Amino acid sequence: MEAKIGRFFESVGSLFTGGDQIPWCNSDIVSGCEREVAEAEKGSSDELKSECITRLSWALVHSKRPEDVQRGIAMLEALLAGYNSPMQLRERLYLLAVGYYRSGEYSRSRQLVEDCLEIVPDWRQAFTLKKTIENKITKDGVIGIGIATIAVGLLAGGIAAALSLRKK
């Protein structure tokens, strides 16, 4: 019985916290990636620079800091023009989808994941992100309906109370 109650409270908690499986990245990792990019800029090959920038953009879109996520999105948008292969495009689109998910732009994120799945139809990671996005959209809709219902109930209660006071 306690296990059932625990699972219930976990599911309710994940409803409000998001409960997604996308990893987070801390500022130390972001700083390390920034140093790596700075070192690569000092004469490394274009391929190594691109790898370092991709790692930095990964760290940025997985950061808990909204300003990092926005930086990552901007970097990835700029990188999209210079992809060399479908796999690079797939990676960048996926990371961009993560960034938009983290910034709350779920419809844009879902479209990018669908673009990834057009490139690699059986990519499990993209399927997982798509499901996470759709669950978030559904949860936000349920919460919105609940808030609207409460607001209507309070308004109706207020009107009923005002009318009952007026009759007295």
From TrEMBL:
BP terms from Gene Ontology: autophagy of mitochondrion; mitochondrial fission; peroxisome fission
Keyword Iron-sulfur applies: no
Keywords: Membrane, Mitochondrion, Mitochondrion outer membrane, Peroxisome biogenesis, Transmembrane, Transmembrane helix
Residues passing through the membrane, by range: 141-165
CDD domains, A to Z: Fis1
Membrane topology: Single-pass membrane protein
Main location: mitochondrion
Cellular component aspect of the GO annotation: mitochondrial outer membrane; peroxisomal membrane
DNA damage in keyword set: no
Pfam families, A to Z: Fis1_TPR_C (PF14853), Fis1_TPR_N (PF14852)
Entry comment, domain topic: The C-terminus is necessary for mitochondrial or peroxisomal targeting, while the N-terminus is necessary for mitochondrial or peroxisomal fission.
Protein name: Mitochondrial fission 1 protein
Organism: Fraxinus pennsylvanica
